[in-house]
């Protein structure tokens, strides 16, 4: 039984450790987009290289995040978390010292591996160490401080890019890690999963990551029309099929496919794919639009994007309460439609755009749409499966959102007609950005239609989210299992092992 009280010195150290660890990954996911134009100029990189700078990280993170939680259960959550923090820092150092785009992209892929180890571990350390009476408050503080980290990310990133340089966007992680790792070793108790046994689904994780990487490559390089691109596309689809077959037949799979027997779970994950594909494409291109076309500095562009995260931090808890009262169907329909309206308002943002009259209104509408949908989305995911599988369901939903974002970053420039040098040509980029925003709005409308047609009110005794405050615009919040093992029911599905990162000590 976890016995560390949050008010104790050790409880505060645990909270500090987990906030520092999760903030590293959150900061990195929000600051890099702001730095892309300067990275491209300094390393003489084309648009494809900038896409890979974002997606190399997302490929390994999305493909390995579920495996990372399982490794923590087996070998010790603190140990794997510390390894993830140090790995992330070492890869960040390589990113900061990269002499060319190729080295930067490879280092970003290594960074994603570290992120897959530390991201599920940060929440799991709280679940495994903090007393149950304090756990809800600890998770609330963890998610709140993490949201603040995500909020300040674009501002800090812009300041670093305009000041000491884009390399410090990555080098900033090194001192954070050097603070976080020793504190974790000294003050955080070790814990393992009581049911962490059997083989790891390394094959499933590898196939998932390979499928994402090959499909991403094919989409980014599709303009070349070469045989290599065609082979990569076919191989990526084959790897995806193999992943499904392996997960279907393997005992103890990373992603048990029977969880999709719940129609509600399947439907809300399709909505997630639509919503976070649009978000991933928007935040990748918006940071470029504000710098390349509008002509703002990196700091001004990063600061301009703060309203969306600020609204998420301030109103996500109230949005969750509203969803509990009226059910998720209306928020999951209205939210994407508001986001679509916000992206269409971005069509007014061009050369010489005014922040107060053109940029801010679009971001406010987009932010209110995100507030409306994210908390009910997470609640519906958790409510659509047995309580014993809630943590696993959240992990799958989180990975799906990351995969949707990386596919959007790969595909959207192709669909919008952006050439390799588009970000160097303001007029050409502006035209393509407008087409891209229209496409993103269309995907959001499709998501809203699916939500209206498929989402239903969950049972009143279902599992509810523990993370009430959320500030990340890139992914939905992670949730872990919190029900004591002895209190789990005996109905169908309760024999399922604890989800990765969620087994109590």
3D architecture notes:
The chain has 505 residues and is mainly α. It has 3 domains: 1-188, Growth Hormone, Chain: A (Up-down Bundle); 202-253; 257-457, MFS general substrate transporter like domains (Growth Hormone, Chain: A), CATH 1.20.1250.20. Helices cover 73% and strands 0% of the residues. The chain crosses the membrane at residues 12-36, 48-68, 80-99, 105-126, 138-160, 166-188, 200-220, 226-246, 267-288, 294-317, 329-347, 359-383, 395-416, 436-455. It is a multi-pass membrane protein.
Please provide a brief summary of the model.
The chain is an all-alpha fold. Helix content is about 75%, strand content about 0%. The protein starts with 8 loop residues before the first helix and ends in a 51-residue tail after the last helix.
């Amino acid at each position: 039984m976890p016995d560390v009280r949050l008010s104790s010195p050790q409880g505060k150290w645990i909270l500090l450790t987990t906030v520092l660890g999760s903030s590293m990954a959150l900061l990195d996911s929000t600051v890099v987009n702001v730095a892309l134009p300067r990275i491209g100029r300094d390393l003489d990189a084309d648009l494809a290289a900038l896409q890979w700078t974002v997606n190399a990280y997302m490929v390994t993170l999305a493909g390995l995040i579920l495996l990372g939680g399982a490794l923590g259960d087996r070998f010790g959550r603190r140990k794997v978390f510390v390894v993830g923090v140090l790995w992330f820092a070492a890869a960040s150092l390589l990113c900061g010292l990269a002499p060319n785009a190729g080295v930067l992209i490879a280092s970003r892929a290594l960074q994603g591996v570290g992120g897959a180890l530390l991201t599920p571990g940060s929440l799991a350390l709280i679940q495994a160490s903090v007393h149950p009476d304090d756990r809800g408050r600890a998770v609330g503080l963890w998610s709140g401080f993490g949201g603040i980290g995500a909020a300040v990310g674009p501002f800090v990133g812009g300041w670093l890019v305009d000041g000491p340089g884009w390399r410090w966007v990555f080098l900033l992680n090194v001192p954070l890690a050097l603070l976080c790792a020793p504190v974790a070793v000294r003050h955080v108790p070790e814990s393992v999963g009581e049911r962490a046994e059997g083989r790891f689904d390394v094959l499933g994780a590898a196939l998932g990551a390979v499928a994402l990487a090959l499909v991403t490559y094919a989409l980014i390089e599709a303009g070349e029309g070469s045989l290599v691109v065609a082979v990569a596309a076919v191989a990526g689809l084959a790897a995806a099929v193999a992943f499904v077959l392996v997960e279907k037949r393997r005992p103890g799979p990373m992603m048990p496919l029977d969880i999709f027997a719940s129609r509600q779970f399947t439907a809300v994950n399709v909505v997630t794919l639509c919503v976070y594909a649009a978000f991933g494409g928007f935040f990748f291109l918006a940071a470029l639009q504000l710098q390349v076309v509008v002509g703002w500095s990196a700091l001004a562009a990063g600061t301009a994007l703060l309203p969306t995260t600020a609204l998420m931090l301030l109103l996500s808890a109230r949005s969750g309460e509203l969803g509990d009262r009226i059910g998720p169907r209306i928020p999951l329909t209205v939210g994407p439609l508001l986001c679509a309206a916000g992206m269409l308002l971005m069509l007014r943002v061009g050369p010489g755009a005014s922040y107060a009259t053109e940029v801010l209104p679009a971001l406010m509408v987009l932010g209110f749409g995100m507030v409306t949908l994210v908390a009910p989305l997470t609640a519906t995911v958790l409510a659509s499966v047995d309580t014993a599988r809630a943590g696993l369901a959240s992990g799958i939903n989180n990975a799906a959102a990351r995969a949707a974002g990386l596919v959007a970053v790969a595909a959207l420039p192709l669909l919008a007609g952006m050439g390799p040098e588009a970000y160097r040509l303001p007029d050409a980029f502006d035209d393509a950005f407008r087409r891209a925003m229209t496409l993103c709005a269309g995907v959001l409308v499709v998501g809203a239609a699916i939500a209206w047609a498929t989402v239903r009110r969950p049972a009143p005794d279902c599992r509810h989210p523990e993370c009430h405050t959320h500030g990340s615009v890139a992914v939905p919040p992670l949730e872990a299992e919190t029900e004591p093992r002895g209190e789990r029911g005996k109905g169908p599905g309760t024999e399922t092992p604890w989800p990765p990162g969620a087994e109590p000590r």
